[in-house]
Amino acid sequence: MTKRLLTGNEAIAYGAWEAGVDFASAYPGTPSSEILANIAKFKDIRSEWAPNEKVSLEAAIGASIAGVRSICAMKHVGVNVAADPLFTFSYMGVNGGMVLISADEPGQHSSQNEQDNRWYAVSAKLPMFEPSNSQECRDMLFASYELSEKYDAPVLMRLTTRICHSKSIVECGDRKTVPAKPYKKDVQKNLMVPQMARQRRVVVEKRMNDLAEYSENNPFNYIEKATVKTKKGERVGVLASGTCYHFAKEVFGDAVAFLKLGYTNPLPNNLLDKFMKEVDTLYIVEENDPYLENWVKARGYKCKGKDTFPPYGEMTADVLRGALTGKQLPQIDYDKSLLVPRPPTLCAGCPHRGFFYELSKRKKIAISGDIGCYTLGFAPPYNAMDTCLCMGGAFSVAHGMQLAFDKSGQDIRAIGILGDSTFLHTGINSLMDIAYNGSKAISVILDNRITGMTGHQENPGSGKTLSGEVTPIINLKEVVKSFGFKHIFEIDPNDLKAVKKALDDALALDEASVIITVWPCPLKRMDKAEREQYGNPFTTKVKVDESKCISCKLCIRCGCPALSMNRKTNKAEVDFPQCVGCDVCVQICPKKAIEKETK
To answer: Which fold, 221-325?
Structure first.
C-alpha cells in the first residue's frame, strides 16, 4: 500500500482504478468535475465526457449490462437530468458493478439550488454510501462494487463539496483484475416493458430487505462511545454522516457518543436502537434536509436536529458552535472597511464581453439566461440577464415568455442565451421547441469552443475527446439550420459592429432567429492548428495614450478586469499581464486613446 495526499475526487479516481473499473463517463459540474479528469489519467479505464448527465449514465449502464465495472459522476442537479434511466436501471439491476457519484453542494457555492440527493436513493431504491474523508471515498468505492454485484443493484455514492475538495491521507494499492462478466441476453431483466417491470419491482423490494441486513453489519456504520465523562453525568449522543461527522467531532469532542453512518440507505434500525439505549440526549447533525432526523423520529425517539441547527447551508464547526452556545471561538480582528469587494466577473478577453456590452444597451427586452460563465452577464456593468432556471432551459423559457408577451400585448422581445456546451447538453431540445411550436424569440449561442466554467473540459463542439484525441466538431450552424430556422447570424463577438448589426437585424424580424457568436475562450489550451484557425489570437496587448484619454470612463463600462482608472492621474490604464488584446475597449474609446501594442 502507498500513502497519498488526495482530495475526495482524486480518491474516487484511485478507488475506481484499484477496483477494476473499465468504463467511466461524466458531464463536468462543480464539485464533481475533477473525478473524471483524474480517472482519465489511468489508461486502463476508458474515460469519456458525455454531452449531458443522462447520456453519461446511460453509457455507464450499457457498459454494466455488457459485463464490466463502470462509474458515472455528476453534480447534484445533474442527477435530475439522469433520473429517467436511474430509476429504471434500479429495476433492471447490474451485470458488471455500477456506481453513480452524486456530488451535492450544501451552501450553494456554485449551484442554482441546494437539493439533497439522499432522497434519490430512497425514491429509486438504491443502496447508498456517504464517505466522510478521502480514505473512505476509496474504501467505500471498493465496497460499492462488491455490494453492487452481490445484490444486483446500482449504487449511489453521495459526496459533498468539502469531501470532494478537501485533502487527507489515503492508503492506495494496486489495480484489482476483474474479468468482464459474460453478456447474456435476458429480456426479463433488461427490457423494461410493463410486463417485465412488474416482475422486477418485486425483486427490488426483496433486494432492499436483504440490504437492510448489510446496513446493520458493515464496517462503515458504527458506534463510538464517549471517552470523557461529563460533569452532570448526562449521556449525550450525536448521529452524523459524511463531512458532518468531522464537524461534529470538532465541536462535541470526546464527551459524547457518536453513531457514525457511512452506509445510509437502507438505514440501520437495530444499530440505532442499540445506540439510543446508551444516550439520554441525541443531537443529529446533517446538512440540507432532515433525512436522518425523520428516520429517528419515525423510530419513536426524541432528538435535537433542525430545531437546534440551521435548516440549510453547511454545518461547519463554527455554525454548530454558534447554534449550540451562541458564541464563536476568538477571531483575529481587522479593519473590514479595507476589504475590497471582489464579485465574480468575466475574465479579461472573454468573448462574451462584447456581446453583453452591446446587449445591455437594448430596451424592451427580457433575457433568459442559462448555466455557465455567461450567467455573469446579469451583473453590473451589463445587467443583461433577467432569469436563469436550469441547464439548457434558456431557449424554452424565452419561448414561453415570448408567447405570453405576444398574447398579452406587451411590446417586449424575449432573448434566450446559452453557451456551446450547454446547447449540446440540453439546449438543442429547447431550440427545437421554438422551431417546432413557433415564436419570435431570439436565441443566442455563445460558442467559446470549450466547457468553460467547470474547468475547460472538452465537448462535442471542441474537436477533442477527454483523452486529447482529435474528433469531428459539431457544426452548430448546420445543426441550427437543420431545424428550419431561416435567419442565422454567425459573428465574432469581439467585433462590436457585427454584434450590433446582428442584434438590430434579429430584433427587426417578426419571427424567430438565432445568433451564434464564435470565438475561443482566452484560457483554452489550443494547439498550433487551432491558433492558426483564429489568426493566432491573444498574442498582442493594448495600451493607453494618456494624452488622448479624456477620463470619460466609457472603456470601464465594458467590465474588463484588465482596465481601471489610475487614482493619481484619473486616466484609464491597462493591467498588462491580464490583457489579451481582444480589442473591445479599443472599439469603445471615443478618442482612440486605447490602441494595440505594436510588436
So the answer is: Rossmann fold (3.40.50)
Q: What is the DSSP string of 516-566?
A: EEE---TTS---HHHHHHTTS-S---EEE-TTT-----TGGGG--TTEEE-
Quickly count: other Cβ atoms within 10 Å of residue 567's Cβ: 7
503 — pLDDT class (breaks 50, 70, 90): very high
Helix, strand or coil, per DSSP, at residue 580? coil
> Between the CA of residue 595 and those of 271, 573, 580, 587, 598, what are the distances in Å?
72, 12, 13, 9, 9
Residue type (1 letter), 97: G
Of 181, 255, 262, 192, which Cα lies nearest the Cα of 220? 262
pLDDT given at position 230: 65
What are the DSSP calls for 298-344, one per residue? Answer: HTT---BSTTTS-SSS---HHHHHHHHHS---------GGGPPP---
Distance CA(439)–CA(395), nearest Å, equals 11
Domain 542-596 CATH assignment equals 3.30.70.20: yes
Q: Which CATH number applies to 2-216: 1.20.58.220, 3.40.50.970, 3.40.50.10770, 3.10.20.740?
A: 3.40.50.970
Which DSSP state fits 426? Answer: I
Mean per-residue pLDDT, 431-445: 97
- Cell 433492471 appears where? 92
pTM of the model: 0.93
* CATH superfamily of the 352-533 domain: Thiamin diphosphate (ThDP)-binding fold, Pyr/PP domains (3.40.50.970)
pLDDT at 231: 64
Residues making up the chain, counted from first to last: 599
Place of cell 487614482: 567
Name the region of 394 (left: φ>0; alpha: ψ -120 to 50; beta: rest).
alpha
367 close to 385: Cβ distance less than 8 angstroms = yes
- The reported pLDDT for the residue numbered 339 is 87
Candidates 129, 118, 132, 114; CA nearest to 247 is 132
Specify the domain boundaries for CATH 3.40.50.970 within the chain.
2-216, 352-533
- pLDDT of 187-198, one tens digit each? 999 999 999 999
Residue 16 has pLDDT above 60, yes or no: yes
Q: Cell 419561448: give the residue.
A: 399
Q: What is the pLDDT of residue 336?
A: 87
HEC string of 260-304 equals: EECEEECCCHHHHHHHHCCCCEEEEECCCCCHHHHHHHHCCCCCE
